[in-house]
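Name: tRNA (guanine(26)-N(2))-dimethyltransferase
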Amino acid sequence: GLRVLEALAASGLRSVRFAREVPGLRAIVASDCSPRAAALLARNVARNGVGELVTPRLADARMLMYQSKAEREPFDVIDLDPYGSPAPFLDAAVQAVSEGGELGRGSGGPPGPPWAPLNPDLPGLLCVTCTDMAVMAGNSAETCYSKYGAVSLKGKFCHEMALRIILHSLDLRANCYQRYVVPLLSVSADFYVRVFVRVFTGQAKVKASASKQALVFHCVGCGSHHLQRLGRATSHGSGFKYSAATGPPMGPTCEFCHHRHQVGGPVWAEALHDPAFVEEVLAALERSPGRFSTEPRLQGMLSVIAEELSDVPLYYTLDGLSSTVRSNTPSLLQLRSALLHAGFRVSLSHACRNAVKTDAPPAVLWDIMRCWAKLHTVKRERLPDSSPAARILAVEPTLQASFALHEDANPSSRKRGLKRFPENPEAFWGPKARAK
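Structure predicted for tRNA (guanine(26)-N(2))-dimethyltransferase:
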């Protein structure tokens, strides 16, 4: 009984697939503002025999969504996949999507997909794609602010930061209408990011939004980063008390290399995924082997996502840490083992092959790299005194790191040989120049 909007449908490929592959839909509206695209869309709907479900529309996506809001006919699912930034459509989308309901496997009746709503009340699902990754990854911080209300940084963690920027932007726009978002799945893949969020209404929950956002302080020398929450939520009797956060989390210069910090954000600082939802999708894949030609990639990426630390924003990289101290690079298992032996948690990130996501503070990471540098000679006499490497290695480590293999160092997805980080399918693959 779901009503779906593909707001920027172009040829209508995705709407046709929705109609032919997703059971139980009530109606699909496929819209495009280009007369040529709308005509092509209508032909494709007729050719695929889905005219009873898909309604082609020639309309501005924003006006269509505002109209549905005014007529109190919200869409249960809104899919925004523009060429470039979705920013112009976000305000309309957070208003035109229905109120989120409970998700889970329904009881009785024919078996449906694992994400079928228990309650036929609407799921309030918003699916948003951003392909303007140059802007979101720090190449044009001022443009990123004008579109998403956040300053992007050119750090090793830029792909995860892009996910957190779009989630911040969605939540910020929803807050204007006493609504808030809850991420189900946030994916950085190839040359784009795509997020799936539920949208709910609740004035009390909106008050907590400030405590879910954070500024990012990124050292330009060694790459250490710190997060500064914008708000603070503390338990107060049966409820919560909200106040301004205290800070900053570090001094005027980096304590490790004495360089200055860049300030980015605000970004979403809470979990990027709903673990239960990710497990449901993985279970659905296992129940239907061979249904999708991209099944190995889906299973690999979702498995890495399921292993990610949900309460640790951003990450470091193996090559970034070793290049800072001018040493050779430890293997993934060696660095993970050192962190685990030190009593900290560590995981991969689906957004970067060499990512190290850990709850260890930067001081512990640099102690581990100091121990590594002692085992693998670094020619310190060639390092300028003001370089990050010289200043970090000049300090004796307080933690004696062990690089012996830890039993939990090898993640399950790696042991199983899953296709976690797919290679480009062909040379020069990726987004081309915009059509003239």
